[in-house]
User: Fold this.
Amino acid sequence: MSRYRIPGKGRVDHAAPVRFSFDGRSYMGLRGDTVASALLANGVHLMGRSFKYHRPRGAVTAGSEEPNALIGTSRGKGRAEPNTRATMQELRAGLVAESQNRWPGLGFDAGAVNDLLYPLFSAGFYYKTFMWPRAFWDRLYEPVIRAAAGLGRAPGEPDPDRYASRYLHADLLVVGAGPAGLAAARAAARAGLRVTLVDEHAEMGGALLSDPGVVIEGRPAWDWLAAVLEELRGLGVRLMCRTTAIGYYHQNMIGLCERLTDHLDSPPETAPRERLWRVRAARVVLAQGAIEKPLVFDGNDRPGVMLAGAAQTYLHRFGVLVGRRAAVVTAHDSAYFAAFDLADAGVRIAVLVDTRDAPPADLLDQARRRGIEVLAGHSVTATAGRLRIRSVRVNRVRDGQVAGGRAIACDCLLMSGGWTPSLHLFSHTKGSLIWDAAAQTYLPGETIEDCHVAGAGRGLWGYGAVLADGDAAGVAAASALGRAAAGAAPAVAHDRTGSGEAQRELPSDMAPSLARAFVDFQNDVTAKDIRLAVREGMKSIEHVKRYTTTGMATDQGKLSNINGLMIAADMLGKAPPQVGLTTFRPPYTPTTFGALAGYHRGSHFELTRKTPIDAWAEERGAVFEPVAQWRRAWYFPRPGEDMEAAVARECLATRASVGIFDASTLGKIEVAGPDAVEFMNRMYTNPWSKLAPGRTRYGLLLGEDGFIRDDGVIGRLADDLFHVTTTTGGAARVLTMMEDYLQTEWPDLRVWLTSTTEHWAVAALNGPNARKVLEPLVEGLDISNDAFPHMSVTECRVAGIPARLFRLSFTGELGFEINVPARHGPDLWRALMAAGAAHDICPYGTETMHVLRAEKGFIIVGQDTDGTVTPADAGLGWAIGKAKPDFVGKRSLSRPDMVAPGRKQLVGLLTEDGAVRLEEGAQIVDDPARPLPMRMVGHVTSSYRSATLGRSIAMALIENGHSRMGELVHVPMPGRTHRARITGTAFYDPDGARMKL
Amino acid sequence: MQVTVEELAPVARFSLRVRDKGVAAVGKALGLTLPGRIGERADRGDLAVLCLGPDEWLLTAPEEARAGIVADLAGIYARAPHSLTDISHREVGFRISGPAAATLLSMGCPRDLDRLAPGRGVRTLFDSASVILWRDGPDMFRMDVWRSFAPHVRSLLEIGQQELAAGL
Assistant:
């Protein structure tokens, strides 16, 4: 047993030693320790080097607000984490911990030279030093600064751990399981609420874990705690330890991060490391307590200097003495109790310095009885020691005058500047903060959320007060939800009440320019830096923050903000609320990317939709491409083929004989009801009244602005039933738009819309032999050209499967689209492949589909249109029912700028050199010889190599394109500018004879 | 934590849309009263009808009942216009059952499942996929997922089962 561990004391398991290593050296701790408590038990205070000056640092707290003791932890390959808080990381067997920001070692660190250069690195250092020469910034300054910046090393390997997420609903969520949170949870649970209680620590109890001497409801604190937790469990309260409330979002949505395995010696194989909870709570009680403030004096960052409350926690929770000879400096009563507890545990209290002139008499009395020397009206002006404090310099202060100091030997210095209510989550709600001039602190004001702050979080002090407040908060939550609740404010004996006074830097006889009095430990900001920032013109705390970086570290200034504010306000001669307070933002403490990503990684990164034919295509060796949420077969390469070769072969085979294409992803909407035709007339540009059942028509959908939104072939199956198809990516959007109009504009229409996209699997057969393949499989229907002409639709059976059969063509060849219920898709596909074998049927993918349609000049909405293209621009004026009284977008089409000359119009483009394929998106100019910047008259929308035509083809949007047929334009591309001639868009079979075979 | 996930055999599924006076007529043709509030369900034998919207119901029945339902409703179309769309193949059904069923669902479903009483059903989300979630019993749920989303949903449920098996 080490000389700093008290046998049998604390909540650690003295019978369960745990071995771990720190900086390569093996240590022994106990089950229940944190890394920090275990190191302290071994007499190790030096745990890291500071960010900027590489100053030796030790743990200053015992909680998540720790700014100094940030270490690297690892558990094998890929499982490394930088900046783990040693004060929060529980000990596990075999834990490998390393200090950070030091080279070659923690004891001797070359970077500590920065500390000697301290006068150079003042506030605003970057802005002043790296101004010029300008060219040096990119090549020298920024790379060097970036290399020096940052703390810890991000792991370079993929994270092999799993991360989980869940939703949770509660009537009441209580954040913080200290006395106030426990009392709130108990009162609410007794009233029958569904309660969740969370705490970031390994066990619940909060401050009670560090104050076992308090007696609540007749029981010692720890017995009371155990009884309450037992009762809460019995009442069905969800108790979550190791769970940090990271953010408070709109309408009482709170994000929790639960750490599941980092404390385990060997986690179960499939267990997630962390779980993100999205909690929707009807009411929230924030009982996060208060965070102790450091005091600001020269050398307040030396290892061995820590918060008094932290020393009390190490003593009671972990049975660890942070030193054998402690000095105490305080501006608050609470440090007296820490001193008394340490003294009672055998620590020699070398001195207790109180910055106040008149500490409470009862505390002085208790100190005297323990033989503790109290120096009231004194200041601490310096500490000494290299890697650990060895003495503290104490000076008497009278009427603002600092007398000469004397050094008092010590091996630790416990400080308390009072307590700051923890308002981070409350701030996330955009709740207002109110400055309490008496307590010199911000307190929670109004918030729009159903949220209540209880206990020390709203400035109360003493167990009796916070327990009563928590109880009242629980009762209030129950009442708000209509449950009768009886309050039961717990009676408290041996309470520890108290108060204090707020301090700026402690008075000193040292020249301010020499004092290294730290305000922000994590970002190495001193009181001098803040005063300098104000002198240099920073008037708001937001400016001071950015100029000095105070409060900008990962702890978001949990320890430093109020001290920084008090110093800035003093320098400005203003009250603190006039200087402001910086905004807290989620997350409360640093959160892993893994927790935020949850299950969305690897193959589950994004939902991927697959068609019924997908498995066949995969087996066939298809290369896939993402289209909206779908993955679609892109092309089917044969051995040795690249994409270009495969696509050329697929195109030629389809035009020569027959190709088969999976069109299942096309959006499908069933429009049914007596007013279906009226609805179609109003939505689409085309006229529908005269379309006979059994016939189909190309439909064009505009937005109210008159621009093309979607298109597709639409079949009329009966007088009151249309089968609408949409683009793959537009399916959901089109249905939503239709529903919007139906529900808000035309609720009188008796028509209903149902998405049937996924009810049908669709195989498209195209090519001169398409009918030969299909005919033998069709039952009860003559599909000859006369009986079933182009643009027909009917219901029949194909390969024994009930089908909706369309005759249409997106390729320019004789084409059919066979829709069968999705589960039968693979059967249909196999039947068609078998029947097509005699005709060398060729499966093709989306790329070949694109080429074939471009050869015909058929547009793809979203590729050849961009939301600013009218039907006339796209050459689709023929699709407008001119006799119709109205349709969506009709009025916009007659706006002056929609009919004005100069609009970009869709045309074909043929390069003079047919071997050149233009880049899609390439800009088009009339005369490349003009000076830059040159006027661009359009851009290429689609461009392919056409195997059928033996040259490249392209489509483009060009100003006044329709009246410029035959003219030459120029397309600058990397390397050279190409000449191309404007043409019509139908490059192949312009009369459409092949579709009508 | 015990939970089982099974893919269910195909059933006949229809989306039924009807309003005003047609509601009663359609109910009569189906031999039940169409439930009037979203989330409510009515059953007659193997036929289940779930109210999903003010004028929207989901019908499920054994596959062999399909033709009968279509014929029954076609018979009243003239006086009670409605839309009866076959969506049998649009969705795949999963049964999630066991003491940890609700916990498993909470990994992807943002709804408060405590508030979904047995015998009710709702349209909701499971990890960005739109689903119909039926609660058939305290520990028994059914989830209808659009076919193309089903592999993603299924594999997330499997990850969730492994997570539950790990016990953390």
In short: Strands of chain B lie at 4-7, 12-17, 41-44, 47-53, 56-61, 83-86, 91-97, 120-126, 129-137, 140-146. Chain B touches chain A at residues 10, 15, 17, 55, 81-83, 85-91, 103, 106-107, 109-115, 127-129, 146-149, 151-152, 155-156, 159, 162-163, 165-168 (CB under 8 Å). The longest helix of chain B spans residues 150-166. Chain B has a mean pLDDT of 96.
